[in-house]
Amino acid sequence: MNKYIIIIAGEPYSVFLEILFKSIKLKKLNKPYILICSKKLLISQMKKLNYSFKINLVDKNKIKNLKLLKNHINLLDVKFSFKKTFDKITSKSSKYIENCFLEGLEIIKNNKANILINGPVSKKYFLKKKFLGITEYLANKSKKKGEEIMLIYNKNLSVSPITTHLPLQDVKKNLSTKKIIRNVLKINSFFKKKLKRKAKFVITGLNPHCETTKKFSEEEKIIIPAINKLKKKNININGPFSADTLFLKKNIKKFNVVIGMYHDQVLTPIKTLYEFNAINITLGLPFLRMTPDHGPNNSMLGKNKSNPTSLIETFKFLSQIREN
């Protein structure tokens, strides 16, 4: 029996519900799912954005015997008080967002779901500097701290930074040969087992042109030893290459996964190449976590003009992965 998909709406004052409505209307979500958010908020946004979907309320006390209905939004209602349907993001939403995540993780814990999709949240207000990002937040809540792997997936080219939401000054001390090997092996396994695809890796250097005038070279001491060990494990990987030319059209045809050393080194080019046609996947957790590759976009709230492509791609991806 297929398990359910958990969809956490995230920041209440974001465009996520709008793009979810558009995706549902286009019939892009074809698997059983539970949306976790405020019923009051859901109805208000449907009304304001001129959408009408039937709602089936899910009783969390009967989670082991769930009955989900087709052509309905199967909703687990989390109470949230708001004065305006469309408002600015503040810390007042933090407790509500936390409760939504805890409800979703509880369903996963009860072995009724193995995929979690979340809408964007504000790092400034929700995470409050306690976590670098939702990737790290979920790893902590799942007792997998330090094992999380960020993969920005597109069917033609995917990227994965070894360090995630770190300030640049902290990147160097958080790189290791062991971490590179672990991440590449997990991504390789994901491609093979879940996607039935062969991963062709290429890895960047850390320094400009993979060179440094310092005594310690990250390329020589950390990255190249990792590449050599991975090749001995029959992993298709090459590098290190300088990131400034790696993403040229003639180069990206040769591989399908770029391993970078830090966040913007690989996320900036893939977003430039594919815009919203990519999804953010977190590996290394007890479940598969995905999220559209964009933020809350509060400035577009209520305008009904947001692009649902990234969420649609997320739903398309669900039909590509193997259940087990």
Q: What is the CATH superfamily of the largest domain?
A: Isopropylmalate Dehydrogenase
C-alpha geometry: elongated
CATH hierarchy, class of the largest domain: Alpha Beta
Helical proportion?
25-40%
Q: Supply the CATH architecture of the largest domain.
A: 3-Layer(aba) Sandwich
Largest sheet: 8 strands, mixed
Cα-atom radius of gyration? 20 Å
- Could you tell me the CATH topology label of the largest domain: Isopropylmalate Dehydrogenase
* Structural domains: how many: 2
Secondary-structure class: alpha/beta
The residue-averaged pLDDT reads 89
Distance between the termini: 11 Å
- How many H/I helices? 12
Beta fraction of the residues? Answer: 15-25%
Number of strands: 12
Task: Report the uncertain regions.
Answer: none
Order of helices and strands: EHEHEEHEHHEEHHEHEHHEHEEH
Main β-sheet, spatial strand arrangement:
3-4-2-1-5-12-11-6
What tags apply to this protein structure?
elongated, Isopropylmalate Dehydrogenase, 324 residues, 12 helices, 2 domains, four-stranded parallel beta sheet, 36% helix, eight-stranded mixed beta sheet
